[in-house]
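Run: sequence + nicotinamide-adenine-dinucleotide -> complex structure.
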Amino acid sequence: MLIGIPKEIKTMENRVSMTPGAVETLVRRGHAVIVEKGAGLGSGLSDDEYVAAGARMVSADEAWAAEMVIKVKEPIASEYKYLRDDLLLFTYLHLAADKKLTDALLKAGTTGIAYETVQLPDGSLPLLTPMSEVAGRMAAQEGALHLEKPKGGRGILLGGVPGVAPANVMVMGGGVVGTNAAKIAAGMGARVTIFDVNHARLQYLDDIFGSRVTTITSTEPNIRAAVTQADLVVGAVLIPGAKAPNLITRGMLSTMKEGSVIVDVAVDQGGCVETIKPTTHTDPTYVVDGVVHYGVANMPGAVPRTSTFALVNQTLPYALLLADKGLDALGVNNSLKLGLNTMKGRLTCAAVGEAFGIDT
Ligand code: NAD
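>> structure
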């Protein structure tokens, strides 16, 4: 199959959908890969590395003319002109939040397979997990940074020093983001408490972390008591398909320490802190009632090289299957079939259909 890798053109997007190593794997399997010139530069991957891996460097128009186009972000308006009925597009689509793109894909008859709806039998989302891992680890790092005085924080070191107590870190939600945030915060020496409503998850976290973290059932009284002692709060809650619940209310802020920090990773689902709003890497924080709020909605964007490799590790097996078998791959892999969002002008993903009131 002829596979195209366009350069990402969405603002501040520096990831690329295939690394040279992944290209080499596809080429060895007998596929041809064309990569837009400069596509990997944002992730520190040169055109020469792609050529050495067997790719041909081309223009955007040529890359988009391939049989299958693999991307990172959903096509933006200036890319709609490339959509066509014999195109297989494999990328993050997030259609429920983007009616214009949905209409463009349906009008063009493009087959769109969305990373975010590929689902394993246990319900997990393997192509979202790597970005949650990155964001979770970054949350502890960003929290530590913003606790520094010049950044507006309380001026404390997350891990303390001999003779001085470390910071108290509250992690709201012990899923992928929360577990990764807890791991780094505990690794830096902080006192970490994870809150979750899922008891089986708390048992698992208790087993893997042992005495390095405390687990607490996420109830309003437990949160209200703990928040007064917190130096850093990480928001990492997810209720699939719903807005995140407001676990930290506006009223609780006034009970928090001056200069404490909230990193609400769940901001992309509305956040689990009542006062959180989306921010950007260029201006990541603001202060409410003396509490520093960090609400960057695309945290992995700050570490594009790590994020690119993490994403491609997970997408490559599916890309190989699609390249080898074309759409027959959907018949042999149900997880991939769940990724199918649009085909021949029809919406094929129930959750997206529900968002727009369209039958699938
Ligand atoms: P996940 O499903 O792995 O974990 C969510 C956890 O929240 C689960 O363990 C669940 O039991 C728990 N939970 C649900 N209700 C709760 C409550 N009331 N109190 C405490 N815990 C509760 O999800 P994830 O992959 O860890 O993602 C978490 C959030 O981070 C999502 O909103 C995701 O979109 C977001 N995210 C943001 C970025 C970013 O750059 N800002 C990047 C990746 C992921």
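>> summary
The chain has two domains: 2-118+305-356, 129-302. The chain has 13 helices and 15 strands.
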